[in-house]
Write a structure and sequence with these properties.
Helix content is 0%, strand content 43%. It is mainly beta. The strands form 2 sheets. Strands 2, 4, 5, 6, 9, 10 and 11 form a 7-stranded mixed β-sheet that branches. A 4-stranded antiparallel β-sheet has the order 1-3-8-7, with no helix packed on it.
């Protein structure tokens, strides 16, 4: 199965930056969209924050657009989430997940999930 591992979380002050990584050794990931999700403390996991599809197109939700960007390496084994201008409300566990989306198709669901990495934004 596709295995995803997040890394790069930590603590940062408001306005700071972090870069998260989502890594896999499965080269079939080229047929998948990889999305980033966030679960704030005491809340349900949000919908897709940012995603990059199987042909390299990336997009982020309005709530983080202009502050977050996602991209993937040319061999598609690593996906990055660059987070800039972090706010207190960005605190949470960040997950990457893969959904079947060959040739740029939009996934119906995300089937494979990483274990998450903690991001804490505090003064």
């Amino acid at each position: 199965q596709v295995q995803l591992v997040e890394s790069g979380g930590g603590s940062v002050q408001p306005g700071g930056s972090l870069r998260l990584s989502c890594q896999t050794n499965d080269f079939t990931l080229e047929y998948y969209t990889v999305g980033w999700f966030r679960q704030a403390p005491g809340k349900a996991r949000e919908g897709v924050l940012c995603s990059v599809n199987s042909v390299g197109s990336a997009n982020c939700a309005d709530s983080v657009k202009g502050r977050f960007t996602t991209s993937r390496t040319s061999n598609k084994t690593t996906v990055y989430l660059q987070m800039d201008k972090l706010k207190l409300e960005d605190t949470g566990i960040y997950y990457c997940a893969a959904g079947w989306g060959p040739f740029g198709a939009v996934p119906d669901k995300y089937d494979y999930w990483g274990q998450g990495t903690q991001v804490t934004v505090s003064s």
